[in-house]
Structure formats: C-alpha cells, structure tokens
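Quick bug: SDR family NAD(P)-dependent oxidoreductase output formatted oddly.
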Amino acid sequence: MSVLVTGASAGFGRAIAKKFANNGHKVVAVARRKEKLESLKDEIKNCQIIACDICNRDELLRGFESLDKDYKDVDILINNAGLALGIAKAQNCEFDDWDRMIEVNIKALSFITHYFLPKMIENKNGHIINIGSIAGTYPYPGGNVYGATKAFVKQFSLNLKADVAGSGVRVSNIEPGLSSDSEFSLVRFKGDSKKVEELYRDSNALKPEDIAESVYFVANMPKHVNINSIELMPTSQSFAALDVYRSK
Ligand code: 8X3
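Here's what came back:
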C-alpha cells in the first residue's frame, strides 16, 4: 500500500509527498528531475522515485513496473502534476503551449488514473485525489486552455466518482486558488520573475503546505466519507466583477 504523487519534485507535489511520508506512508514520487527527486528521497523515509516525463507512457510504465512490491500496490493516487503556460489571450497564444497543457493536465492524468483504477476496484480500496484549480470554475482573461484543462479535471473527478460508486474507491478534487512558493507562476510567465513578484505582492497567497494539508485531510477522513471537492483560496483573494466593454 502506498501513495503515488506526480509532480513531486517541487511545490505542491513535494509538500504532499513529505506530508504523507512524515505520517508513515510509503511514497512513490514521480517527476522529471531526478536530482530533485533524489534530494526528496534523502529528506523523507520510505520513498521510491520514478524520474520521467509523465507524457512518456513507455517510461512511465517501466517506472511503475520497477517499483518494489509494497510500493506497487498504490492505494492513494495523487494526480498533482500540471502546468499553466502563458497568460496571453487565446487569440495570441502559441498552440504548442496549449498542446503541452492538454498533454500533461488531461492526457497524462487520465493515463495514470486508467492504469491504477482497476487494481483499486479489485482491492475494494483506493483514493484518487486530483489537483484541480479554481481556474476550472472561474474564467479569467488568459486562462483559456489552462482553465479548460482544470474544468476537465473537475468533471472527470465527478464522473469517476459516478463510475466507482459502490466499489469502496474514493475520488476527490482539490481546487486551489492563488498559490506561491512553487514554480507554477515562473513556468506560466516563462521565467519572468518580475511578473511573478508582482502577482504575489502583498497577497499572502496559499503555500504548498496548505494544499498538502487539504489533501492529507481528505485522504484521512473515515473510509465511508468521500469529500468530492475542496475549493480553497487565500483569504486575500476574491472574484473579479463581470467585465462589460462599452462601445463609447
Ligand atoms: C492556479 C490558480 O488562480 O492562478 O491554478 O488560476 S490560478
């Protein structure tokens, strides 16, 4: 029995991996950067790593197969890996950015879920915890495909829940708002640290540990309780008014 976390090298994923490992769980940490995973492995007990791009299905399958027996039987799958690329309006976006977000946020997440789900059903035990986003619910300029991928995660989580009902398997979607201390915004702004600084200025945004706490809470509710979703924002964040563009 183990907990598999994707995107575990940094940010939410790393904090989630630490939270579970520090509470006695075996953790499978998946991410691209081997050195970061090795350093995580040095920090926590009971951790095995899979260093690969989760969009590379062959590498991923090889990684799953290489796990020790007591790590292979994943009972909590945390689909955390995901990214936003760019904040331009749709008409000005690079299609390659959209393609990559769809590959990681939708296709890789679906593939990994598809791989582990049958075993969970067979064991009558398992929990799939997806990391969605408030962007899957609330539209904002520049959110275009990123928000749409997170809307997929939201609906996929609900549809999975409908399919696994009665099996003992649980499905949850954690939807954070503005979150700092991860590489998310630096990736989104393509390395422009000034924009990142401005985004977080005086905001007291959510921290990776806040998300890890929510994930751990959801996973540790009694087995008969399925928390379908948690939407969390920093106290400082709110909703924008609906824009009206006037002709004059
Ligand atoms: C990230 C949260 O507010 O940048 O998923 O869309 S937000």
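Actually, after a second look the formatting is fine. Residues 95-123 form the longest helix (29 residues). Closing.
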